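Design request, tokens follow.
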């Protein structure tokens, strides 16, 4: 295989992989899911899922990528043969399909950034109906999500070092600075402490099987697992790097940002007496109301800053989603990177139009299918198939692959490069136990439950 470019250092990999992990999942989804599921009780379960299941899968993905030095398809094919390569293809398809709607939501965040920071969005009366109208009116969204896709493509065209790594090294520190600045501001507001109490006082009475199920799904998506994004990034790191410590830093950074997003959002929400259990509308409906009450100038700055944060988090994630199919075509077909990126960005954007138009603009896409007792949009359907169902399946298959096809002995040998004390250590025992027993069981159950629940007309929760 031709010389593969790679990250320049461990820091480069850690920045890029944390950038991939930290995204809409942390700042948009985590706070509202936590709000719905008992605050800190959910947080605790989420952290357990992250370390028991997420971390070992992350280590497995990175090791498989580095061992094969290839995209997910090439990696499974090289290490497992033709049949296993289908798993890699599934991952590549997931990258395309998840990005198609993720970019639409990122476009909403981008539009809110522009229109709160520089327009008159905060002058609206009712943010609930405003948001409904906003996502249904595709003229603005078309522009914002197009710009977002172009930004993503420009970075990915730059390649691993000059594109992905550089962007992450610039965006991630900025993201932390904005996040900390906003948290400090939020803490000074009246009733901020009530928000903290809601967030940090566990209410175990709200914990049930569904909470645990949501925590697994959220942890998995947030760490960017199950479709080979980290196989791809792992293929770009050198044999001297310590995979365990790199994965540990990425995992901690991801949990930290989710945790910090809660420290920001709950004080903001409580400062204006708003409802923390609002659900998916928390960021797009409740927060604008909060920013409006903060005052015309401060609201613009704080609100604009918040949505800029969301955009930066989303951008380092969209580049990782795009890099997976890009690596496939560049590695396997030897097509020029520029052409592949441009072509894929166009295809992904076009598929995304269907999700964009499914938010009220076109009835056939808005009421696309009926299952789980309600009408589902095209965006819902794609996210259910490629995110809720396919990612746990991808993770399940990765653990089976590592444990029973590649074998943990070979996994350990790969991890031992750059980590000479690994073989025989407790961490090795834990990783192997998790990948052989915990992950297949947990992810297998999640997969089956999700399929039955969503498409099998079985009401489990
Ligand atoms: N982890 C990102 C988030 O929290 C989303 C993401 C980026 C992702 N790349 C991925 C999820 C690969 C699964 C697989 O928003």
């Amino acid at each position: 295989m031709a010389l593969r470019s790679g990250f320049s250092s461990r820091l480069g990999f850690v920045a890029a992989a944390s950038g991939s992990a930290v995204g809409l999942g942390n700042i948009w989804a985590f706070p509202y899911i936590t709000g719905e599921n008992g605050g800190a009780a959910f947080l605790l379960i989420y952290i357990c899922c992250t370390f028991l299941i997420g971390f070992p899968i992350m280590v497995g993905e990175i090791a498989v990528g580095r061992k094969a030095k290839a995209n997910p398809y090439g990696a499974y094919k090289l290490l497992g043969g033709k049949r296993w390569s289908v798993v890699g293809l599934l991952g590549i398809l997931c990258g395309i399909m998840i990005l198609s709607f993720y970019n639409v939501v990122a476009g909403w965040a981008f539009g809110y950034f522009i229109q709160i920071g520089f327009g008159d969005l905060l002058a609206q009366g009712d943010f609930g109906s405003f948001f409904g109208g906003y996502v249904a009116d595709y003229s603005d969204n078309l522009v914002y999500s197009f710009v977002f896709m172009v930004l993503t493509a420009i970075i990915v065209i730059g390649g691993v070092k000059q594109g992905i790594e550089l962007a992450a090294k610039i965006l991630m520190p900025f993201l932390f600075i904005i996040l900390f600045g906003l948290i400090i501001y939020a803490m000074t507001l009246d009733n901020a402490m009530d928000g903290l109490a809601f967030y940090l006082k566990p209410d175990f009475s709200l914990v049930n099987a569904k909470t645990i199920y949501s925590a697994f799904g959220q942890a998995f998506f947030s760490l960017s697992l199950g479709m080979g994004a980290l196989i791809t990034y792992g293929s770009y790191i050198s044999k001297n790097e310590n995979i365990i410590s790199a994965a540990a830093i990425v995992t901690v950074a991801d949990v930290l940002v989710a945790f910090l997003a809660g420290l920001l959002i709950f004080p903001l929400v409580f400062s204006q007496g708003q409802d923390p259990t609002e659900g998916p509308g928390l960021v797009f409906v409740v927060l604008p109301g909060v920013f409006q009450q903060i005052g015309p100038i401060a609201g613009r700055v704080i609100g604009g800053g918040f949505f800029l944060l969301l955009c930066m988090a989303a951008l380092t994630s969209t580049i990782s989603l795009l890099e997976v199919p890009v690596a496939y075509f560049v590695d396997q077909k030897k097509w020029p990177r520029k052409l592949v990126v441009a072509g894929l960005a166009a295809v992904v954007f076009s598929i995304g139009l269907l999700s964009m138009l499914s938010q009220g603009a076109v009835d056939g896409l808005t009421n696309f299918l009926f299952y789980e007792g309600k009408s589902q949009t095209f965006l819902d359907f794609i996210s259910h198939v490629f995110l809720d169902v396919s990612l746990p399946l991808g993770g399940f298959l990765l653990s089976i692959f590592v444990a029973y096809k590649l074998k943990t002995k070979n996994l350990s040998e790969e991890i031992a490069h750059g980590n000479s004390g690994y073989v025989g250590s407790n961490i090795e025992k834990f990783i192997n136990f998790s990948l052989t027993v915990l992950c297949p069981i947990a992810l297998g159950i999640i997969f089956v439950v999700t399929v039955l629940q969503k498409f099998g007309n079985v009401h489990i929760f």
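Comment from the thread starter after seeing the answer: thanks! Residues 20-21, 23-26, 221-222, 224, 227, 229, 317, 320-321, 391 surround tryptophan (CB under 6 Å).
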